[in-house]
Design brief:
By secondary structure, this protein is mainly alpha-helical. It has a domain of 217 residues. Helices cover 79% and strands 1% of the residues. It contains 13 helices and 2 strands, in the order αββαααααααααααα. It has a two-stranded antiparallel ribbon with strand order 1-2. α3 crosses α9 and α12 runs antiparallel to α13.
Length: 331
């Protein structure tokens, strides 16, 4: 009976995590698309300063992580010092800024697909720089994702979707997305190095350090000179309170989503988190197509399915590898 109750509690917690990650990040995606395409106020102006979203997100997550550390952290020593995040903070500032700026040039579904192909630069760098040999199934995963993204990019976008973009330019948009992935790869590698050197570093410590440096760099970039774009963004929010409210909700969704990601990883592991976030991206594309008026053709939906088939196969391969490791440990 106790085992049955424990199993039910575990299922309930997993369902709670899935609902939290999906609702936070799908709604954040809707807000991101709204801020990049909507015309605000009677003058019909667009919010052009999308990099300001990163600064606002950094500030909210910085405050959020500080509160979480004070509430839940059991020890105050042993974690990585705040200054160790300075280099990862640079790439974590530039990368997401490029990803958000891409929405001026390509649609939200296209951006989500492009950013789902993180394995491509990882495998290229691994093969060319480090001489790593990958298995045939891993190459199949990469082929499905790369083929789906590239075919989707070459297909003609509907005129309705193009009309919503500030400056339609597919090559520039996809280029920014792949640069975002490259910078993310460096950020992730640096974070892994920090946690290896300081094993007692918690997820909240990382969140605090990364967002502290992100706030510093973005403040310098946006407010470091008299005519910085940050002043224009603040002025726009004063003139259009609706945009300011959307920005606040966007940041809040990011902070809440981080909570659920940390909870999922701590209770169920990174593989479960990868599965939830991957399916969330697919649902985000569906929601964008239905609610935001970004119609996809039958061939484009085929490309979407091709990409997520590759991602699903990758998750399955990770699960099999995890199962084999667990059997070895038992033996």
């Amino acid at each position: 009976m106790e085992l049955h109750d424990a199993g039910l509690r575990r299922v309930f917690v997993l369902a709670f995590c899935v609902a939290g990650i999906w609702s936070a990040y799908i709604y954040q995606g809707v807000l991101q698309e709204t801020l990049s395409t909507k015309r605000f106020g009677p003058d019909g102006k667009r919010f052009e300063h999308l990099a300001f979203l990163n600064l606002a997100q950094n500030v909210v997550c910085l405050v959020w992580s500080y509160i979480m550390i004070k509430l839940w952290s059991s020890s105050s020593s042993g974690g990585a010092p705040w200054w160790t995040y300075w280099s990862a903070g640079i790439t974590n500032t530039i990368g997401p800024a490029m990803g958000i700026e891409a929405l001026k040039y390509i649609s939200y579904p296209a951006q989500v697909l492009a950013k789902s192909s993180k394995m491509i630069p990882v495998m290229l760098m691994g093969t060319l720089v480090y001489g790593i040999r990958y298995t045939l199934p891993e190459y199949i995963c990469t082929f499905l994702v790369a083929g789906g993204v590239s075919t989707f990019a070459l297909m003609k976008t509907s005129s309705k979707t193009i009309s919503k973009l500030a400056h339609p330019n597919a090559p520039l948009g996809y280029g920014l997305c792949f640069l975002n992935l490259a910078f993310d790869g460096f950020t992730n590698a640096t974070q892994d190095s920090i946690t290896a050197r300081y094993p007692k570093t918690s997820a909240w410590d990382i969140m605090l350090g990364m967002n502290l440096w992100g706030t510093i760099y973005n403040m310098i970039y946006m407010f470091g000179w008299p005519h910085g774009s940050g002043f224009e963004a603040v002025q726009f929010c004063r003139q259009h309170p609706e945009a300011a409210w959307d920005i606040f909700l966007y940041c809040l969704c990011g902070a809440v989503g981080q909570n659920f990601i940390f909870l999922t990883i701590s209770r169920f592991g990174s593989l479960a988190n990868t599965t939830i976030t991957t399916t969330r991206k697919f649902v985000s594309i569906v929601v964008s197509s239905l609610l935001s008026g970004n119609p996809l053709s039958g061939k484009q939906w085929g490309c979407v399915l091709m990409v997520f088939s590759g991602l699903s196969y990758q998750i399955y391969l990770k699960w099999r590898k995890l199962q084999r490791l667990q059997k070895k440990r038992k033996a």
